[in-house]
Design brief:
Length: 487
């Protein structure tokens, strides 16, 4: 049995804590906040509840595996509700509502443009094959450069389409812009635009179309609350309101943490706090080479978000997940890519009150709006900009959906990239971590077993395999293969 500390009770830290405590280790999670969840925690405005960050729960098989490895059954612990249609996509010319039914989607695309349905089927069937070859690379560690010579990697290389992006690979199947954008806006889950995201990621929408999307009664934050409860039930110790001040290292080996000015010794330390934040703020730079603060400044980071949480006095006809695409979505993507501002924004809206009465009082609703925006490398005055984004939102809703939201607002809260940095300890407010370009993925992403310091491990969006919930949960599963009980 080892004495293990985890820095942060985000989804990654909690999943790792659940698994490691079940294996018999003596695990303590230190969380700076009063509650668990990090970027995925619950936000409250009176009786209204919001998920701070993640709202899309996909590929739940990985979360099921986390629960299984911790001695529990996910479906017995949480209410997972399938979402149908998956989302409503509002383009200036057409509104599409894809489902997790391949043939229904074919009919939907054909009804828009005859023949588009065949392009969809080709895309779907290609993705199925791609998924089967690429997923093994995301399920296992990538600690050695020789991992690229393993059979599963070599087999996946054609599917990775190394010279293409998500955008160019879809354009080859059909040039219709709405077809391309409906199957590529998911690149934003990686904090990238479809012009940047490597073509391998075209399988992301396939995870939705092929396996469905889910909501958890009470919001996705409930997953964290449940994981915290089961972690403690497995014998773990959870210390909230306890920020870690320093990760202590000697002779290239971690030996403990500094908390409240005291030194606590541990055999192993797992970092769940944002990777680049932890490297710049929690470890003395003299212990770091490859990931010292100077080198980290040269890395590519994801975009950020402005999130607007609205407590409303009624429930509007907005789907559980809805995206309103900019008038000129191509121009918008290019602007975001260059960390530039545009008025022609795209909005993702989450309206869980249409299916979940735990989010707001009866007849009212808790509306979540996300606008992808540049990270803090884009030098903007966020206090002014957030008000501008809010006004653009109300205008777009009036013009595009005929919804006048403002008279119905009872209360509101806004989070900007600066808040993600200052309150959530997210480096540059880049909420989807280091970007997912190929030179920052797999072996080239910070390793789960941290390569610079012994007995130090990483879990969460900043390490392999990546920054969405399924990959974050998978990083906890991968960790288990490294942290073994001492003989
Ligand atoms: C707006 C938004 C929308 C998103 N939408 C989705 C989505 O729909 N689907 C999806 O799959 N993913 C989504 N994500 C991405 C990702 O799933 C979440 O960001 C997720 O919460 C990241 O988990 P994590 O464990 O890596 O880190 P975090 O959630 O950031 O957890 C890290 C924890 O470390 C704590 N911490 C930091 N510093 C210290 C310290 N010094 N001492 C102690 N504790 C510390 C933090 O308080 C936090 O609790 C979204 C993210 C955001 C921000």
């Amino acid at each position: 049995m080892k004495k293990i500390a985890i820095v942060g009770a985000g989804p990654g830290g909690l999943a790792a804590g659940m698994i490691l405590s079940y294996k018999g280790h003596d695990v303590t999670i230190f969380e700076k906040d009063s509650e668990v969840g990090g970027r995925s925690k619950v936000l409250k405005l009176g009786d209204f509840r919001f998920d701070a960050g993640p709202t899309f729960l996909m590929y739940v098989e990985i979360l099921e595996e986390v629960f299984k490895r911790s001695g529990y059954n996910l479906r017995e612990e949480l209410d997972l509700l399938p979402i149908d249609p998956l989302y409503r996509l509002v383009f200036p010319k057409v509104t599409l509502e894809p489902t997790s039914d391949r043939l229904k989607n074919k009919t939907m695309y054909d009804a828009y443009i005859p023949g588009l349905g065949d392009a969809y089927i080709k895309w779907y069937d290609d993705q199925k094959k791609k998924f089967d070859t690429i997923t093994p690379l995301l399920l296992r560690p990538f600690d050695s450069i020789f991992d690229y010579l393993r059979l599963d990697t070599l087999r996946a290389i054609p599917a990775l389409q190394l010279s293409k992006t998500v955008y160019t690979s879809l354009k080859k199947i059909h040039p219709n812009p709405e077809f391309i954008h409906s199957l590529s806006f998911q690149a934003k889950y990686l904090g990238m635009s479809s012009y940047q995201a490597p073509a391998g990621f075209t399988f992301l929408p396939y995870l939705e179309h092929g396996f469905g999307l889910f909501h958890v009664q009470g919001g996705l934050n409930k997953i964290n609350e449940k994981m915290a409860e089961l972690f403690v039930k497995n014998g773990g110790t959870l210390k909230t309101n306890t920020p870690v001040e320093e990760i202590l290292v000697e002779n290239k080996k971690v030996y403990g943490l500094k908390v409240n000015g005291h030194t606590y010794k541990f055999d192993d330390v797992v970092i769940n706090a944002d990777f680049s934040y932890a490297m710049t703020k929690l470890i003395d730079p003299k212990h770091l080479k490859k990931y010292n603060p100077k080198k980290l400044e040269k890395k590519d980071y994801s975009i950020s978000t402005i999130n607007i949480y609205l407590a409303l006095d009624k429930v509007f006809d907005i789907k559980h997940h809805q995206v309103i695409f900019s008038n000129d979505y191509d121009a918008y993507l290019k602007k975001i890519l260059n960390n530039e501002f545009t008025d022609d924004l795209s909005f993702y809206i989450h309206n869980p009150s249409v299916m979940d009465d735990a989010m707001a009082p009866k007849g009212k609703s808790a509306l979540y709006v996300l606008a992808p925006v540049p990270n803090l490398r884009g030098k903007l005055d966020w206090d002014t900009y957030k008000l501008k984004v809010e006004q653009i939102l109300y205008k777009v809703l009036k013009e595009r959906l005929n919804i006048d939201l403002e008279p119905h607002i009872l209360d509101k809260m806004i989070i900007t990239p600066k808040d993600w940095q200052d309150d959530y300890n997210v480096h540059l407010g880049a909420v989807f971590n280091l970007s997912h370009k190929l030179s920052q993925m797999m072996h080239f992403r910070p390793h789960n077993k941290f390569e610079e310091i012994k007995n130090l491990y990483l879990v969460g969006g900043g390490t392999h395999p990546g920054s969405g919930l399924p990959t974050i949960y998978q990083s906890a599963i991968i960790l288990e293969s490294f942290i073994k009980p001492e003989k």
